[in-house]
Write a structure and sequence with these properties.
Blueprint (H helix, E strand, L loop, with lengths): L15 H21 L4 H13 L7 H15 L5 H21 L3 H17 L3 H10 L4 H18 L2 E3 L2 H8 L4 H5 L2 H20 L6 H11 L10 H18 L13 H9 L1 H7 L2 H13 L6 H13 L16 H15 L24 E3 L1
Keywords: Signal
Protein name: DUF3541 domain-containing protein
Length: 370
C-alpha cells in the first residue's frame, strides 16, 4: 500500500517564536483553568462550617456560644439557637457567681490573685507579659476580663442580672481610665482593653474610649513598628481590629470608615507587613474590619481572603494553628473568623429579647429583661 505525503509550503509553517508564544498562551490557559477549579471562598467557608458544626455541641460552653452567637448574627439560622442559649446560661452563671461570691474588695482581691497566678504557671511569651504587667493590679482581671464581658453580653441580649445595680456599684469603685491608659497593660491586653472601654460605654458607665485610643497610639507609634517583636506587632494589630469590632458591638452594626480612618489607612499602608508577621486570626480580623465598613471591594479584603484560603488544611477541613494543630477547641476562634471573612453576610443586631422573643421563652436563672 502506498501513502501520499502532502507537501506543506514553508510559508505556512509557524516560526519558532510564534510556536513559543502559542505554548505560553497554552500555559496561561492551564493556569487559569487551575485557578477556576479552586473552591470559591463561600465553598471553603462551608467546608469549615461542616467541620465545626458536626461537633459543635462537644465544645465547652464558652466556645460553643462564641461560635453559635456569631453564626446566628450572620445567618439568623435557628440551628444555632441552642448554642446561643448555652451562651446565655454561661453568662448567667458567671454573674450569679460574682453577685453572690465575689463582690466585696476582699473577695475581689482573693479572686484576682488566684486568676493572676494561672498566668505565672504558663510559659509562653504572652502569658509572661500578662503576668508581669498585671501582678500589681490583679483586680483588672476581675473587672475587665470577667465582670464587664458578662454584663455587656447580657446587655446585648436585652437582658441584665437581677442584681444589676449591685454589680454596677462594683464597677464604680474603680477608675477604669487608670487601666485603659496604662502602657504596660496595653502591651499585654490591647484587644481586651479595646473591648472593655467600649463595654463600659455600652453599659452607660464610664466613657474612656478616647483616652484609651490616645494611649494606644502612644504605646504603638507607627514609626517604631520595625522595633517590635512579632508578638508585639500582632498585639498592636489585634488591638486595632478590636477597636472596630467593639465599636460595632461584635458584628451587630456597621461602622463608618471615616470614624476610624487612622486604622484603615494603616492597614492599607502596611498590608504586606501584616500578612508577613501575623497569624491567621489577626488576618481574618483585619479583613472583617473592612467588611464592617462596607468595603468588600477594597484590595486588602481580597489579600486577606486569599491568605486564609491558602492556609486551610483541606484534609482536616479547617484553618490549623501555626504549629499545625487542628484541635477544634483551640481553633474555634480562628475558624469562625475565617468563615465570616470568606462568606460575609452583613451586620445585624440579633438576637435580642425584643426582636426575637421566641428565643427567650426560657431565660437562664439570674437574668431578667432590661
Amino acid at each position: 500500500m502506498f501513502f501520499s505525503v502532502a507537501v506543506v509550503p514553508a510559508a505556512i509553517i509557524p516560526a519558532a517564536p510564534a510556536f513559543a508564544a502559542q505554548a505560553s498562551d497554552s500555559q496561561v490557559s492551564d493556569s487559569q483553568v487551575q485557578a477556576e477549579t479552586l473552591p470559591s471562598y463561600q465553598q471553603d467557608a462551608e467546608l469549615i462550617k461542616q467541620t465545626f458544626e458536626s461537633q459543635l455541641y462537644t465544645l465547652p460552653a464558652f466556645k460553643m456560644g462564641h461560635y453559635g452567637l456569631r453564626m446566628y448574627r450572620q445567618t439568623q439560622d435557628h440551628k444555632y439557637e441552642a448554642a446561643v442559649w448555652a451562651d446565655m446560661a454561661r453568662v448567667a452563671s458567671r454573674l450569679n457567681y460574682f453577685a453572690t461570691e465575689v463582690h466585696t474588695p476582699e473577695q475581689i482581691k482573693a479572686y484576682s490573685a488566684e486568676r493572676i497566678a494561672r498566668y505565672d504557671k504558663k510559659k509562653d511569651v504572652r502569658s509572661d507579659l500578662r503576668y508581669e504587667e498585671t501582678i500589681d493590679q490583679p483586680e483588672y482581671l476581675y473587672l475587665g476580663v470577667d465582670l464587664l464581658g458578662s454584663m455587656a453580653r447580657a446587655n446585648e441580649y436585652g437582658l441584665k442580672h437581677r442584681e444589676d445595680e449591685k454589680l454596677r456599684q462594683v464597677i464604680r469603685r474603680y477608675d477604669f481610665k487608670a487601666f485603659a491608659t496604662d502602657h504596660g497593660l496595653i502591651r499585654a491586653w490591647a484587644a481586651q482593653l479595646a473591648n472593655q472601654v467600649y463595654w463600659l460605654q455600652q453599659l452607660g458607665e464610664q466613657d474612656v474610649v478616647a483616652e484609651f485610643i490616645e494611649a494606644f497610639k502612644a504605646t504603638y507609634p507607627d514609626s517604631q513598628d520595625e522595633q517590635l517583636t512579632d508578638q508585639q506587632f500582632m498585639n498592636k494589630i489585634y488591638g486595632m481590629t478590636h477597636i472596630i469590632f467593639a465599636a460595632a458591638e461584635y458584628y451587630q452594626h456597621s461602622v463608618n470608615e471615616a470614624d476610624f480612618q487612622w486604622i484603615y489607612d494603616y492597614y492599607r499602608d502596611n498590608v504586606e507587613q501584616i500578612l508577613a508577621r501575623s497569624k491567621e486570626d489577626v488576618l481574618a480580623e483585619v479583613g472583617i474590619n473592612f467588611l464592617l465598613a462596607g468595603l468588600e471591594d477594597d484590595p486588602v479584603v481580597e489579600k486577606m481572603r486569599k491568605a486564609i484560603q491558602q492556609s486551610i488544611d483541606r484534609e482536616a477541613g479547617m484553618v490549623p494553628a501555626v504549629n499545625g494543630s487542628t484541635d477544634l477547641e483551640d481553633g474555634e476562634h480562628r475558624n469562625v473568623l475565617a468563615i465570616m471573612l470568606l462568606d460575609w453576610k452583613g451586620a445585624r443586631e440579633v438576637p435580642t429579647i425584643n426582636r426575637d422573643p421566641e428565643m427567650f421563652s426560657s431565660i437562664p436563672y439570674g437574668l431578667v429583661r432590661q
